[in-house]
Design a protein that fits this description.
Layout: H1 7-10, H2 21-35, H3 45-66, H4 68-78, H5 93-108, H6 112-139, H7 143-171
Helix pairs in contact: 2-3, 4-6, 4-7, 5-7, 6-7
């Protein structure tokens, strides 16, 4: 193992968006068992510090790969397409119109059932965006287009958080 390996290599997984979640978790557990600092207690403080670095690195890789959005962002960056999400917020007009319509529907919703219907609509759109993202990364190897898709999903994710907060007001 090498601390400089990419997350996929470190965890012994193929460098792709579609990931077998149980395999990811199995690899993570196996590596954690190998590098846990307690295993190196008899070898002194220096060995434990190195083991701690490894444990942290393995955990970081696992956290990044287990979330589809961060995994996609990471894949884009590995393939030379930085998201620049802070400075690159340009989106297609149709996507922005959809976002505005969702925001308006959220603002105008007066019942839990209206919010749940909006949540169903947004969830379906999110699934469709995720499928397209997988196709762009795994089938077409188009990191630039995938980066655009990740930025769109970041918008959707933020909206779903706002929608979830609003739903909570009805559930309490």
């Amino acid at each position: 193992m090498n601390l400089q390996d990419d997350d996929f290599t470190l965890l012994g997984l193929p460098q792709q968006f579609a990931l077998d979640r149980p395999a990811l978790e199995q690899q993570w557990r196996a590596l954690q068992a190998q590098v846990h600092p307690d295993r190196f207690a008899s070898q002194g403080k220096a060995a434990q510090r190195v083991a701690m670095q490894w444990a942290v690195r393995v955990n970081e890789a696992f956290q990044r790969l287990r979330d589809p959005l961060t995994r996609a962002q990471y894949l884009c960056e590995l393939r030379g397409a930085s998201l620049n999400a802070e400075s690159n917020t340009a989106m297609p007009a149709s996507f922005l119109m959809q976002q505005m319509a969702w925001r308006e529907a959220l603002d105008e919703a007066t019942s839990q059932s209206e919010l749940e219907a909006l949540d169903d609509t947004v969830s379906a759109a999110e699934r469709q965006l995720m499928q397209e993202l997988g196709r762009l990364l795994d089938e077409q190897d188009d990191a630039q287009a995938a980066a655009q898709q990740v930025r769109a999903l970041m918008f959707v994710n933020r909206f779903r958080i706002d929608l979830g907060r609003r739903l909570e007001t009805f559930e309490t």
